[in-house]
Write a structure and sequence with these properties.
It is built from 9 helices and 17 strands. It is an alpha/beta fold. A 7-stranded parallel beta sheet has the order 7-11-6-1-4-5-12, with helices on both faces. The protein has a 5-stranded parallel beta sheet with strand order 14-13-15-16-17. Strands 8-9-10 form a 3-stranded antiparallel beta sheet. Bound molecules: flavin-adenine dinucleotide (FAD). This is Electron transfer flavoprotein subunit alpha/FixB family protein.
Length: about 350
């Protein structure tokens, strides 16, 4: 593999039903940072049927070029035609880096494609940066240290440690990235990208599954990744019924209730509301952590919130290490008092 032939940062721009997934914009934001460090540009790979119209949106969020693979076979996501499309783009355009969102589609597509183009993939990354590999040169083997590598960081061993992984001998360097972790840029209205149409040809075979029916789940839970204020509860809330205290606080603040995994495991709230390593990564303006101990797997999903307020009866709870404001005491007393005070404040205005 001639590594020097591989250039540019590529981002898989996931769309479903002609609507781009937010993670596509987040990856473009990160892709721009990486491209700057590598002195290269960012290409979005848009795959689907009748989707060319989405290219301008990708330009507004930072794509310098959009490669469009448009074919009726790509109308709904299926592993085989999508993997063929993306692997063909990689073989033709030889990117140095290929980023895919760690969505249900991306988790299927990314590894399939990496195997096909014979490179490695680091799944579920939370940090991506350009740097040296090994991070510190081995004494006496300084010349072996490689520069300008993609350093891909992700939780490992059940979240008990953080691993930084590189792919120095193969290209592209591939990663899937958790939605909500990277930041999109402020859109540049009217920005235009260089649009390239590419169709590798699709010949259905026995791996082209036939979709008989698509049943869409009706969601009646809020998308906690979009919330500006989250009132999050943990096992300390004590019961499903007691979440009423948090709902009242959220209502006064115009916020949304979310929770720790312990709450989901107890069946008090649905998994859609779980924050953390195996839940959602959130970045609200205010995050209330109420009766949440602050386990590393929870903190991984909320530590980038602008302001963190923790309420816990244990003054040594690790959540206070990441909190901007901490209240030590019984949530059953503090939360209703806070709600009442905020209500009174608002009525006085
Ligand atoms: C691979 C893996 C992935 C995981 N992923 C996630 C994840 O995505 N999200 C997640 O949240 N966890 C995750 N976990 C679980 C995580 O390790 C913790 O077990 C979990 O976060 C604990 O939830 P908690 O803080 O609600 O409960 P606890 O740890 O039991 O904490 C309850 C807290 O409430 C406080 N409290 C109790 N009563 C009151 C009261 N009356 N007033 C005030 N405070 C009170 C206690 O002092 C305590 O600090 C994961 C674990 C593993 C191994």
């Amino acid at each position: 593999m001639a590594l020097e032939e591989y250039k540019g940062v590529f981002v898989f721009a996931q769309q479903v039903d002609n609507v781009l997934d937010g993670v596509a914009f987040e990856l473009l934001g990160k892709g721009k940072d990486l491209a700057k460090d590598l002195d290269t540009d960012v290409t979005a790979v848009l795959i689907g049927s009748g989707i060319k119209g989405l290219a301008d949106q990708l330009a507004e969020y930072g794509a310098d070029r959009v490669i469009v693979v448009d074919d009726p076979e790509l109308k709904d996501y299926r592993t085989e035609p999508y993997a063929h499309a993306l692997a063909s783009v990689i073989n033709e355009y030889k990117p140095e880096i290929m980023l895919v969102g760690a969505t249900a589609i991306g988790r299927d597509l990314g590894p399939t494609v990496s195997a096909r183009v014979k490179t490695g993939l680091t799944a579920d990354c939370t940090v991506l940066e350009i740097g040296d590999f090994p991070l510190v040169a081995v004494p006496g083997k300084e010349a072996d240290q490689k520069h300008k590598q993609l350093l891909m960081t992700r939780p490992a061993f059940g979240g008990n440690t953080i691993a930084t992984i590189a792919c120095p001998d193969n290209r592209p360097q591939m990663a899937t990235v958790r939605p909500g972790v990277m930041q999109k840029i402020a859109p540049i209205a009217g920005a235009k990208a260089n649009i390239v149409e590419f169709n590798p040809g699709f010949t259905p075979n026995n791996r082209y599954v036939e979709i008989l029916n698509i049943v869409k789940a009706v969601k009646n839970t809020a998308n906690i990744m979009d919330a500006k204020i989250l009132v999050s509860g943990g096992r300390g809330v004590g019961s499903k019924e007691n979440f009423k205290l948090l709902e009242d606080l959220a209502e006064v603040l115009g916020g949304t209730v979310s929770c720790s995994r312990a709450v989901v495991e107890n069946g008090w709230l649905p998994v859609d509301l779980q924050v953390g390593q195996t839940g959602k990564t959130v970045r609200p303006q205010i995050y209330f952590a109420i009766g949440i101990s602050g386990a590393i797997q929870h903190v991984a999903g909320m530590e980038d919130s602008d302001l963190i307020v923790a309420i816990n009866k244990d003054e040594d709870a690790p959540i206070f290490d990441v909190a901007d404001y901490g209240l030590v005491g019984d949530l059953n007393k503090i939360v209703p008092a806070l709600t009442a005070a905020l209500k009174a404040e608002m009525q006085a205005k």
